[in-house]
Amino acid sequence: MFRFVQAGNEVSVLLGVTPSEQAYQATLQTEISTLEDRLIATENGSITSFQNVYVPADELTDAGVSTIVSFLDTAVVLSRSVAQKGLYPPIDLFQSSSSGISESFLGTQHFKVLTQFQQLLDQYNNLSHIVAIVGESELSIENRILFERTKKIINYLTQPFFMTEKQTGRKGVFVPKEIAIKDIELILSGKADAIPSERFLYIGSLKDAKIVL
User: What kind of fold does domain 103-200 have according to CATH?
Assistant: First the structure.
């Protein structure tokens, strides 16, 4: 999708058109809107579009990127910094977003667990800056518990891929949504507080990892 934006920019440069924000073509919004408007449901069927968007210099505020994302219902952001921590899939939980987050769409239990985790994630993000400077041991007991629980859920959200079994030596695992929600709910409740966060990396479900709560 970003290549489509680049192509429009290259053509406008060749034609000598006056550029707009960040040197993109002035017709950027219109071009993307025209393309996206073609991806609509008809009487004969509907279409789901998965669009790859390259992010120049990892800058999500890039005019081309932000314009594309504004048309998407859901954005899953893959991050180099998350990959460097050894967490796969390297999804940036802070930058990713979805317009489908509602109780009527997800169901009561899923929505409740998700909103609880999002609240913890915001606090975790603030605490991580402190931890990077003074260390986790300097946090208050309450903040340390909050930080550890969030880290366990982040680790739990990693998964062994079937397609990478030969490279990683880990057997691929599929975890049904209902099991994942229940597992995260148990971590949020504090029942896993005594278990080290490292135990939650690439495990599939808690049952698969033989973590008894």
Answer: 1.10.1140
